Amino acid sequence: AIHSSESTSSSDEERFERRKSKSMSRARNRCLPMNLRAEDLASGVLRDRVKVGASLADVDPMNLDTSVKFDSVGGLSHHIQSLKEMVVFPLLYPEVFEKFKIQPPRGCLFYGPPGTGKTLVARALANECSQGDRKVSFFMRKGADCLSKWVGESERQLRLLFDQAYLMRPSIIFFDEIDGLAPVRSSRQDQIHSSIVSTLLALMDGLDSRGEIVVIGATNRLDSIDPALRRPGRFDREFLFNLPDKKARKHILEIHTRDWSPKLAEPFIDELAEKCVGYCGADIKALCTEAALAALRRRYPQIYGSSQRYQLDVGSIVLGPQDFGRALRSIIPAGQRALTPPGQALSCVLKPLLEPTLAQTLACLMRVFPHADLLHREHIHGTLPFPDSYSEDEECLGAPSIYETHSGSLKEAASCTTHKPFLHFTTSAYRQPTSYRPRLLLTGPQGAGQSTHLAPAVLHHLEKFTVHRLDLPTLYSVSAKTPEESCAQVFREARRCVPSIIYMPHISDWWEAISETVKSSFLTLLQDVPSFTPLLILATAETVYQQLPDELTCIFSRSYGEVVCLSMPGEEARRKFFSDLILVQAAKAPPRRRKTVSALEVLTLAEDPGPRQLSPEELRRLEEQEENTLRELRLFLRDITKRLATDKRFQIFSKPVDIEEVSDYLEVIKQPMDLSTIMMKIDSHKYMVAKDFLVDIDLICGNALEYNPDKDPGDKIIRHRACSLKDTAHAMIASELDPEFDRMCEEIKESCRKRGDPALQAVLIDFNLFLSSDNIKRKLRRRPIWGRGIIRKKKSYKKEEAEEDDEPEEEEGEDDSAAMVQGDACLTQDESSCDAMELHPDKQPLQANGHILSTEEENSSEPTATQDPQGEKEPIKALSEEASSSKEATSKCLIMFYFPVFQALLEKVVVKSDGFSVDHLERVYSVLSQCIYQHRRDYDKTHFNPLVSVRSLDCLQPVNWS
């Protein structure tokens, strides 16, 4: 008994282990990589790694774009080099890692704002690693795809994912939005998430070796990830994906426009990259798209008035600066939708006024913060292709050897090491710039532009550095944090990603508003920053330096050049500021009216392009997939036919009718059908959908009902069995055929019809013949209706239509529906009505194009354009003559402008604005601009007396700068 119980328990355990292994195998087969196809997995080395099933992944978040490579990524060369060290180099140069017995980094974390290329780099890495004979499996999970409502299922999914990646190594697992999968563990968090995080930690760096599995995580919120993940062994490297600088933006623009013809000029790309401050990679791609659409809208506005397709000259669509200008005005960068960045270029209006002051401020900045000068030189001269590469200098050549020496005694080796150390951690002034607590203060009276224009322009110049804003909204906007915590967080983030900048606008008002504890915290945090840390404190004060509190004057020392005192704009700067407005813009001619809608050309309708022609490789893959689906359909139909044929009730329909026994059968039945013929048609690939099969079943039933009248008892039995055969076949198809599979077969049939496959077209023609013969037999019972001769008229019409159209019916597209409507109309109307119906489709597109884009004078020329295709040029020519005559009339209008009056106005404005602040000068500029805008349509500028607007200057008092 004991022996039997032990054997029973052992057999139960064996069965349980077998079931468990099968279940695990099925579950792993649902976690297949995205970048490999089934034929790739079942061939070569991959087949030896793991036996792969036919099911797809349980989560298919995206289809991998194989065209994305590293050359499609701009501005992230350092990140790409690091990824090559992690993934590509161990495959290409394994001898290097074998020599030093090291393992390459197996984990990295991407973090940064949205749209900066984190997922794009992961896609490029997957494609770069899957070239030629080397295949790297790429697994991707987005957010919380692995989470489940069942307890323990999420941990099981993670374990299965890592098991499958281990079996198919080398492999990459990419967790997009990993903060949703592994958030920070805390006491307030539920136990489920903590268990998932613990499982992920153990899988990434546990007792078992992870092998050749690279784990990549991407997130927008770095602080939300559990800190245990951010250590070597799990995520060895962290890559910051920041907003691209000017050089990176130029590279991204070149990537997105490299296939354009003609290519954009390099000076224009430089200027465009200068304007796209704050744009991420996705914003720049959207900018190129919007510019192309703006060019299309400008060249062919007619196509927006109709839904039909017209013939367009694509070569005439050329992008211009105005198209990119419209795109820049229409796009809001992703980073500016929630919060406007502090950096902003100096506007073209204020450049004559503040450009000298900005140059002086930047010169002072270069002395205080030399890292900015280094950045400026990198933009001018460029950098090495490998920024981490270095060369051996004299110090390295003269340094003692770090390896063991077999010659000499140990005492001599020890004495050599005591004289000169191996490692030198002293700061080298020759290799890198050094700055002692860099700080810069822009001070001046209120309205001098230090906070509104100059400081944003300085930050725009330092766009590559990370900027952290510290002002009153930063301290008090989050109610869950105290001001002291917010201040400490700003310093902590700034020190984490040095070199960086802490921007403090209106520091004088900020200092007066905060409490004493916040002041003490700020001073403590400022003193805790190491002396040579490249952390710039940039501040602005709306008061003169002498009126600042003593604490602030101690922070920003004037003697060390850390204070820039703004001076009032000089006379020459004010003259340049107003001269363009008064002497140039006020004398401009009225804006010409845009080209009227009537002057637009009338476009001709384009022919239907038909379905897209597939490449030979795509066609081969599509045919293989369709053949696999149709093979499953044939197996299913054979099983149905075999079951019907073996049923004793339907044996009478299993073979063709013997003509020797029933000699008049073919005289009554024009299209015989039986189950054996259906089986032959299945073998001949005549059925593409189950509906075709049911049509032949219905044909068997219809033949039996037609040949066997309801008179003889034997005929009644045959009729009953025929109806039973029909109902049984329909019930079996409805209950056993998957509707989704049937829909796939319908799509295959429609796809073959559009492609015009000859073999499959023969099937369709055969099927149409069955339908037509079936309809003819059913219509024979209505002799009076068929005797009217309508069918012959319909056939002749179709024949004429086929002779007029050289293209097959399958390639007509939308025109088929119009032809069918015409054909139906011709069945019930006479020939004159059919002719009228034929002219209507040709007239309708010209009406849609002409009526929308023409005026009342053009209505008389529409019949000519409809009858003669060459006559379409006549209204265009007339319209161009009208446009040219109106242009000549406009050019004949002279502009009356008395220059001495406006010169006097300029001098009066310059004199009256002496001592005005930048804000006051902007107000005067606005008043003069409004006056010019109100008289912009006048040709006679003598009636415009701009001296009236100078009265507003008397209301403004100069600023006391003392």
From TrEMBL:
Localization per Swiss-Prot or TrEMBL: Nucleus
Coiled-coil regions, chain positions: none
Annotated GO biological process: nucleosome assembly; nucleosome disassembly; transcription initiation-coupled chromatin remodeling
Keywords for the protein's UniProt record, in alphabetical order: Activator, ATP-binding, Bromodomain, Coiled coil, Hydrolase, Isopeptide bond, Nucleotide-binding, Nucleus, Phosphoprotein, Transcription, Transcription regulation, Ubl conjugation
GO cellular component: nucleoplasm
Compositional bias ranges of the Basic residues kind: 18-29
Major location category of this protein: nucleus
Record field: catalytic activity: ATP + H2O = ADP + phosphate + H(+)
PANTHER family associated with the record: AAA DOMAIN-CONTAINING (PTHR23069), ATPASE FAMILY AAA DOMAIN-CONTAINING PROTEIN 2B (PTHR23069:SF5)
Protein name: ATPase family AAA domain-containing protein 2
Organism, scientific name: Sinocyclocheilus rhinocerous
